[in-house]
Amino acid sequence: MTELPGAPTFAPPIDGVRTGGGRSAEPPRVIAVIGASGEPGTAGAALLRGVRATGAVYAVNPHYAGADLDGVPCVAGFAELPERPDLAVVAVPAYAVCGVAAACGRSGIPALTVIRAELTAEQHRRLLAVCRDHGMRLVDPESLAKAGVLQEDPA
C-alpha cells in the first residue's frame, strides 16, 4: 500500500461530529470498504482501486464474501475482519447508510466517510445522530482525497 509520509491527517469532522475532543487523528492504517463490489463501473469497485492505507485494505460485502476483489480480501461482515479498521469507507445505497454507520459504531470503528450516497435531509440528520451516539468521526471524502487516502479510479 502507498505510504502517506507528511500527508495531512483527517480533516476536521463535518457538521460538528467529532471524537477525542477534536484532536487530529493519524492517517488510517486499516481501511474497510463497505459495499465493495466486483462489478466493473460500480462505486464499490472503483473505491477498491482508489483507496490507499498505510496498512491493510479490506472489502466488506456479504454478496462477495470469500472472494478476492482486485486483490482485496472480502468478508461478509465486520466480525470476520482480522483487525479493526481505522476508517470505514461506505459505498452503499442511501437507505442503508445509517444502518451501516450504526454497525460500524458497534464494531468500534472510529471514523467513516460516505461516498456517492444522495442522502435526504432526514437521512443526513440520522447519520449525524448515529455518529454522535457512537463517538465516530464523519470525515469529508474531499479531505481524504486531498490527503491521498482516496484517489480517482485509475481505470
Automatic annotation (TrEMBL):
InterPro entries: CoA-bd, NAD(P)-bd_dom_sf
Residue ranges of domain CoA-binding in the record: 24-119
Region (Disordered): 1-24
A matching Pfam family: CoA_binding_2
Name of the protein described by the UniProt record: CoA-binding protein
Source organism of the structure: Actinomadura monticuli
